[in-house]
Fold:
Amino acid sequence: MHLLLRKAAAAACLLLAAGGARAADPLQHAVISASYSAGGILGIADDYAGSPVSGLDPLNTSVEFFTADALFGFDFAPDGHLTIYNNLAIPAGSYSASFDFGATLGAAIAGFSVTDAGLTGGTPVLSIVDGHTIRIDLSAVEWNGDYNALQTQITLQAVPEPAAVLMLSAGLLGLGLHARRRRG
Structure:
């Protein structure tokens, strides 16, 4: 019976360590550098005056990036959501944007996917360039009107929280001491 309880305790410690691995707001302190294939991209950090670098909007009242051709707005949320809006009718063309988070993320980017296509048609091409950069190609997206939204999600690799690692270590140490005491 005691062996079963010890195995269950060890399994619980492992689950706690794995479960505590996701941060609630992975983009909270992100500083993002953006580029746009059809011209410039402007960041909210300087009130859209020309810099392609921005942090998140602390009041969440505006998009973080607006394309210089006034076609798209990109709104990042602390929880990893990225909503892309079309501001005007989108003429045929090549439209892609890249966003580089540099070293401001707590872990490498693990996923980038569409969560809600809204009224849009076609398929955006989402890619992870490296552990801190994403690219989205909107060339094949049909926006079906103005001010539509395409929602995506950025996920980061799981990194155990220090408390979870400490709990796992303490549990394993306790199990080791218990086993040693039983043998001695």
In short: The two ends are 20 Å apart (CA to CA). Confidence is low (pLDDT under 50) at residues 8-22. The first helix runs from residue 2 to 19. The chain is about 20% helix and 30% strand.
